[in-house]
Amino acid sequence: MEPSQLLQTINHTQGTTFNLLQRYPDGEQGAFAITDEQGKHYVLKWNVDTSSLRNLEDAKAITDLLHSLEYPVPRYVLLGHAFTGIYSIQETLPGSPILHFTANFLPRLLELNGLQRNRALASQRDWHQETVETVLYGGNGYCLHTSLQEHSRETAQLLQDLQGLVAAHQDAPHRTNDIVHGDFHLANILAHNEQVSGVIDWSAPGTGDCVFDLVTLLFYAYDDPTILQQLWQFALEHASPQLLSVYCAHMILRQVDWSLRYHDQAASDQYIKQGQALLRDLAAML
Description:
Elements: H1 3-14, E1 19-23, E2 31-35, E3 41-47, H2 53-68, E4 76-82, E5 85-91, E6 96-97, H3 106-115, E7 125-126, H4 127-137, H5 146-151, H6 153-169, E8 178-180, E9 189-192, E10 195-199, E11 206-208, H7 211-220, H8 225-238, H9 241-262, H10 265-285
Parallel strand pairs: 7-11
Antiparallel strand pairs: 1-2, 2-3, 3-5, 4-5, 6-9, 8-11, 9-10
Helix pairs in contact: 4-9, 6-9, 7-8, 7-9, 9-10
């Protein structure tokens, strides 16, 4: 699929006048910067998986809702089918992904997390069940078990420990009606002039307990004691250690599996050690 042909088709069928600027060098495959005749910038994405249109429709509904609450999200302008795939066009938000996470960002991120409470849509997938099933049985394209089972005795044991933790606490009481971003890490959080300017990539939102998004943030801030302490304190004010252990187990499996398959040994070792340290911290709380 040539992006120029895709954009030409969209302009023809939608009566729009978008122009192609460039392909994004990083991020999702099939993401392009485009502009309209007024010079406003957008992001065009294309995916061969036509079944994900339902997820995009949910994402549009969620981002429209969050935007009405003054949550900085990129709204969807168009969704549709083209070239045996699906496309989406979203607004471009100011700023760039946070490279250096400081405590100054935390108050706003915690405020935004609060806006996700009691806002879920009935059509969203059950994110709590997703976290449980991925650890106990494996996920679809992520949270794979074979990578840990085959890498080393150490990672095979890590997987068993994670499964034991989730099996023991999967029924921990949790909120069920929050919007869950599901991938709330710094690459998806934009900053402009040292302020949070947007949260992007709402392509697969879930329903459940929005504390999961704080656990994601906590996982990737594990090397900063100041931020880590504040996130633990806030998370424990809103969820039990048992529930947090389920979400942490998912995050450990998710990152270790991904690193073993796509990163070098140094990165994999870093996340294996971090996962073990996180398990020790959880054991002290339980």
